[in-house]
């Protein structure tokens, strides 16, 4: 309704002229009336209805108001009809009429204290009561209303609108370098559609001279990926490209598809004209570094930089956008770089160039003033090294991931303590230690002699002794004996002999290579292996 009242206010002074022109054209039997009616209205649009919103304000009957209001909407030119259709405005009329709210809503937008007209409202003495509302102010108010009501519905305004100061900067970065050469027939693609750009290419065979977009950051595109056949089944030529004689996969993680929007725009650059195409697109910081070598994000950066399409990246102030306070960047691309920019990328730090807002708009607490925009564009156009402008060769952004296998760096030493741990290497160290304290080295050297005593000791293992019975009383539960599997392992002479042999060999090794610390484990290992050969 806000937009509708603006259109109504703009057309109000020429309403009678449009109606007279319409009547004349109908009498003359002229069917192509658009140009003449636009001429009569003085705008690129018109309304041939006999009503204005002020006429409808006086309607008392809701049914008559509804019919006349619909007739008023039907009188708009086709370009306005597209706006009304996209807003789905007609769908709300029955609900407003049923609630007896349609007339109230119209009356509120006609309040004398609200001026949505491009002309000022004057007092009786000719002084200005309400200033005019220019297009820039109108856009700002409209975007603030959308932001406010989307927040109330838990939607994010930044998904719908890009601040005008950011748009102005992007436009200047696009057009200034070639301002003297722009042709009137240039094509412009502005990102924004009711469908997903990723899964639905609305312009499959078209190229554009200028492209501007602010894609969603960190938003999942999993549904699009599935609709496109998944990572393995995708065959979309926008995201599977040939580069240096090989197919390059540009498919990113499904959790964030913002770089795919850039790849989509790159696929629509015009390479057949003298000036080529220019792109300005907003990204957050993840587009700069996310993705390992060989993954989609890294491949997109590789593809763009190695083809020498990236002109500059501009770091914007924090809190520039309605729904996020994170760092944002404008990527500027061209497939026909100026000679002095070829093979180079300019990085501009504009994070400190901004004007604070008197009142926050969502998370947006600052804006780029005309002076700030001029300063950024001046740095961009000069293309010189300064504190805020750094210039690098394309090669400075490339890298290869190489696995480096380093020698194992360990301090190595054979100590008596480490040798002693080998004595019970077969496991059950606590039990073997206790048995060793009781039977001594004969467990290793003369196992047959101690076997019967060992077997009896294991059979009695865990039984309560007299001291425990006295402490715990006659009703204390008996301790559980050893499991049969563990008992059999402890009665296996080979396990004791193997452990004894380990101690013997380790002791001999210490005598041969000494007990000093080796800083180089490789030297230690070689000495150990050389001496072990004599024991095989």
Short description:
With 536 residues, the chain is α/β, with parallel strands linked by helices. Helix content is 43%, strand content 12%.
- Domain count: 3
CATH topology of the largest domain: Rossmann fold
Which consecutive residue ranges, at least 5 long each, have pLDDT under 50? Answer: 464-479
Span from first to last CA? 95 Å
How would the global form be characterised? elongated
Task: Please state roughly what percent of the residues sit in beta strands, choosing from under 5%, 5-15%, 15-25%, 25-35%, 35-45% or over 45%.
Answer: 5-15%
CATH class type of the largest domain: Alpha Beta
3D architecture notes:
There is one protein chain. Strands 3-4-7-9-8-10-13 form a 7-stranded mixed β-sheet, sandwiched between helices. It has a two-stranded antiparallel ribbon with strand order 1-2. The protein has a two-stranded antiparallel sheet with strand order 5-6. It has 3 domains: 2-118, no CATH class; 157-397, Rossmann fold; 416-535, no CATH class. It is α/β, with parallel strands linked by helices and 536 residues long. The longest helix has 21 residues, at 493-513. The relative contact order is 0.06. Helix content is 43%, strand content 12%.
């Amino acid at each position: 309704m806000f937009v509708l009242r603006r259109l109504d206010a703009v057309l109000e002074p020429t309403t009678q002229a449009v109606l007279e022109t319409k009547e004349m054209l109908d009498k003359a039997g002229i069917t192509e009336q658009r140009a003449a009616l636009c001429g009569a209205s003085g705008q690129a649009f018109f309304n041939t209805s006999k009503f204005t919103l002020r006429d409808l304000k006086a309607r008392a009957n809701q049914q008559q108001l509804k019919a006349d209001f619909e007739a008023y909407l039907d009188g708009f030119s086709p370009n306005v009809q597209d706006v009304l259709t996209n807003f789905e405005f007609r769908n709300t009329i029955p609900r407003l009429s049923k609630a007896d709210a349609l007339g109230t809503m119209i009356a509120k937008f006609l309040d004398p204290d609200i001026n949505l007209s491009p002309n000022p409202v004057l007092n009786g003495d000719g002084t200005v009561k309400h200033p005019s509302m220019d297009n820039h102010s109108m856009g700002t108010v409209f975007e603030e209303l959308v932001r406010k009501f989307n927040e109330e519905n838990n939607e994010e305004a930044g998904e719908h609108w890009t601040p005008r100061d950011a748009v102005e900067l992007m436009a200047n970065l696009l057009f200034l370098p070639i301002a003297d050469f722009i042709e009137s027939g240039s094509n412009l693609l502005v990102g924004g559609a009711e469908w997903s750009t990723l899964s639905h290419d609305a312009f499959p065979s078209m190229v554009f001279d200028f492209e501007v977009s602010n894609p969603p950051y960190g938003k999942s595109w999993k549904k699009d990926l599935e609709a496109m056949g998944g990572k393995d089944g995708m065959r979309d030529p926008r995201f599977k490209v040939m580069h240096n004689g090989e197919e390059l996969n540009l498919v990113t993680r499904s959790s964030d598809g913002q770089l795919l929007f850039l790849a989509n725009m790159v696929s629509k650059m015009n390479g057949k004209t003298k000036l080529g195409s220019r792109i300005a697109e907003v990204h957050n910081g993840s587009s700069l570094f996310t993705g390992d070598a060989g993954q989609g994000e890294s491949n997109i950066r590789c593809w763009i930089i190695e083809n020498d399409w990236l002109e500059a990246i501009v770091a914007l102030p924090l809190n520039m956008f309605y729904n996020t306070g994170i760092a944002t960047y404008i990527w500027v691309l061209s497939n026909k770089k100026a000679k002095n920019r070829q093979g180079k990328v300019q990085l501009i730090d504009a994070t400190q160039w901004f004007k604070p807002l008197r009142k926050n708009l969502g998370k947006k607490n600052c804006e780029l003033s005309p002076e700030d925009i001029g300063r950024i564009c001046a740095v961009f156009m000069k293309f010189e090294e300064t504190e805020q402008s750094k210039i690098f060769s394309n090669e400075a952004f490339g890298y290869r991931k190489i696995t480096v296998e380093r020698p194992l760096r360990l301090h190595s030493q054979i100590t008596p303590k480490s040798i002693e741990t080998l004595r019970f290497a077969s496991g059950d160290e606590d039990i073997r230690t206790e048995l060793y304290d009781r039977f001594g080295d004969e467990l290793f050297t003369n196992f047959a002699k101690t076997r019967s005593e060992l077997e009896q000791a294991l059979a009695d293992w865990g039984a309560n002794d007299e001291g425990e019975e006295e402490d715990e009383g006659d009703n204390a539960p008996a301790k559980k004996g050893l499991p049969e599997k563990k008992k059999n392992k402890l009665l296996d002479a080979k396990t004791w002999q193997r452990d004894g042999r380990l101690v013997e060999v380790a002791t001999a090794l210490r005598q041969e290579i000494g007990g000093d610390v080796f800083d180089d484990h490789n030297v230690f290992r070689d000495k150990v292996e050389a001496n072990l050969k004599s024991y095989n």
